Amino acid sequence: MTPAWVRKLRSKTGLSKMAFARSVGCNASSIARWETGKLKPGDKYAPRLLELAAEHNVAPPPEPKWTTDLEKELEAEMARIGL
C-alpha cells in the first residue's frame, strides 16, 4: 500500500485523519506516517483498508515496484552463485 493510495483512500472517504484512524483501528499519527511514507500499514490493518476501498470505489493498491525489483535482484544473485 503506497502513501499515495492511502491518501487517495482517506480523501475519498471524506474523513479527517482522526476519524479515518478510528475507522481503521489505529491512531491519527499512524495515518500521517502512512500518508508520508514514513511507515507502512501493518498486515493487521490491510483488511480494513481494503474494505474501506471497496466501500468507496477505490481501486486496490498497486503492487509496490520494489517487490518486482527485489525479485529480479534475487534471481540475478541466485544465477550468479549457481543456485
Give a quick set of tags describing it:
mainly alpha, 434 Repressor (Amino-terminal Domain), elongated, 83 residues
Task: Explain the overall architecture.
By secondary structure, the protein is mostly helical. The protein has a single domain (3-80), classed as 434 Repressor (Amino-terminal Domain) (Orthogonal Bundle). The protein has five helices and no strands. Helix 1 (3-13) crosses helix 3 and helix 2 packs across helix 3. The model has no long low-confidence stretch (mean pLDDT 89).
In short:
The protein has 83 residues and is mostly helical. It has helices at 3-13, 17-24, 28-36, 46-55, 65-80.
List the helices and strands and how they pair.
Blueprint: H1 3-13, H2 17-24, H3 28-36, H4 46-55, H5 65-80
Distance N terminus to C terminus? 31 Å
CATH architecture level-2 label: Orthogonal Bundle
* Rg over CA atoms: 16 Å
Helix content: 55-70%
Q: Any idea what the shape is?
A: elongated
The CATH topology: 434 Repressor (Amino-terminal Domain)
Give me the oligomer status.
single chain
Indicate the mean pLDDT.
89
Enumerate how many helices there are, as a single number.
5
Domain tally: 1
Largest beta sheet, briefly? none
User: Could you name the ranges where pLDDT drops below 50 across 5 or more consecutive residues?
Assistant: none
